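Quiz preparation item.
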């Protein structure tokens, strides 16, 4: 089964990420989101396909400058928002 998740735009207000960390952050978000979908599956309402035009996620991020940890936390919030 092929699952294609496209995120057109991701706005992180109040998060300072350097240009060099953005690639690591993006990779971490993609990897964690893929892991969550693999382990827990797609929410039922998205299994036949679908679109979420806007997915606001309220993040309580840990105080980290580690882009991998930050990416994992963001992906978990996105996945949580997909289930609503």
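Solution:
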């Amino acid at each position: 089964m092929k699952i294609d998740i496209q995120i057109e735009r991701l706005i992180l207000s109040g998060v300072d990420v350097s240009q060099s960390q953005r690639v690591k952050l993006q990779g971490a978000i993609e990897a964690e989101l893929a892991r969550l979908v693999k382990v827990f599956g797609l929410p039922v309402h998205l299994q036949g396909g679908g679109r979420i035009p806007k997915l606001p996620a309220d993040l309580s991020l840990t105080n980290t400058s580690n882009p991998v940890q930050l990416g994992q936390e963001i992906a978990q919030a996105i996945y949580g928002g997909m289930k609503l």
